[in-house]
Amino acid sequence: MAKTVAEYLQPVHAFLACETPDAWIAFAAREDQLPALLADHANCEMKAAQTAQALMWRYGTPRTHSAVDTSGSQASMLHKLSRLAREELRHFEQVLKIMKKLSLPYLAVPASRYATGMIAAAEKHDPQALVDKLIIGAFIEARSCERFAKLAPHLPPLVADFYISLLKSESRHFSDYLALAETFAGTNIEARVEYFRQVEASLVLSEDAEFRFHSGTPVEAA
Amino acid sequence: MAKTVAEYLQPVHAFLACETPDAWIAFAAREDQLPALLADHANCEMKAAQTAQALMWRYGTPRTHSAVDTSGSQASMLHKLSRLAREELRHFEQVLKIMKKLSLPYLAVPASRYATGMIAAAEKHDPQALVDKLIIGAFIEARSCERFAKLAPHLPPLVADFYISLLKSESRHFSDYLALAETFAGTNIEARVEYFRQVEASLVLSEDAEFRFHSGTPVEAA
Hints:
The structure is a homodimer of 222-residue chains. With 222 residues, chain A is mainly alpha-helical. The first copy, chain A, has a single domain, classed as Ferritin, CATH 1.20.1260. Helix content of chain A is 68%, strand content 2%. The first copy, chain A, has a two-stranded parallel sheet with strand order 1-2. In chain A, helix 1 packs across helix 7 (157-185) and helix 3 packs antiparallel against helix 4. The A-B interface holds A 39, 43, 46, 49-50, 53, 56-57, 61-71, 75, 78-79, 82-83, 85-86, 89-90, 92-93, 96-97, 99-100, 103-110 and B 39, 43, 46, 49-50, 53, 56-57, 61-71, 75, 78-79, 82-83, 85-86, 89-90, 92-93, 96-97, 99-100, 103-110.
């Protein structure tokens, strides 16, 4: 039987330290913010695809003087991240189509502080850098999933339906990233996950002057 | 009615200045070269996806102080290149699966001189740089298509069938790139196409010490 929205969300909520503040939802649901919301969303999908491919290229493909076992975990990571990148690109195309249907322009919207804030908290050297990037990937996907679900009821039907349809793949991306982090850490990662859980929650709960898909609590509503 | 292989190949052959030399085919069909052929092919698919996305990011997404008309040619380029990138990633996954089925490792294979040689012949400044990159994209896709078809009869059935299945999408990628080049040039591009046609043919026909999917005539066979 097909999973319900609540079943997709259960592990996502268990993973995140906090829900998105109601003030962010109220701001994001404003009709005048829809073009910025969709433009930033489109950018996020494209960047998520690029990040997955950067991980493939850096950690998955064979390095000089070594080959990749095509039955091993490195090849399996390549396969998973490639599928994930394809899905993000398809979502990008879908956002573009929705902007067109709603006769909205694709606005120029610089990136939020969210992903940079997470990356700044990561270790710079491997092997920990890879594990951290995968954990961060899990948080970004989980937060996206949570926001799609919480925001959907407040949006025009066309966008709302689309956001609900994204839950399924975003929740799978979240567990894929987490499983990859566990595989490549080769040890228990719970303490590291907890560390990023707090970093992530503080980016979501603290005031943020800019409105984006992953921005913090809007200043004017705080 | 479905197009035949010959119908897919006709515009490709008309576009390229020369066929792949028989000496390259003979070398590429050697059983001991199969791991290198597939590894380089996998890398090419991944890089083709990355190139398409670099073009999206650089030329398709909105720049500061401007927005993209979601009904215009820039949005249509974004959509086409995103689909193309998804297809290249799917091909990457398929090559990986074939290597696994044949119990072959994914070897470390540095890039050939081919794409770098083409890019070196391109204009460095926009707007010509974009048009040149799109023309180069058309040549790379056309050459891939021609090689898949000419090489297939000499390969193990599993790889041969896969290469024939790629013809359809690679020939569409070729025409997509060419159409985009025409759109963004806004003028007749035949002279520029002819210039790259000669550059491409000389990379294919001249001697090449390294064997790759897009390498020149093998030295030892020359």
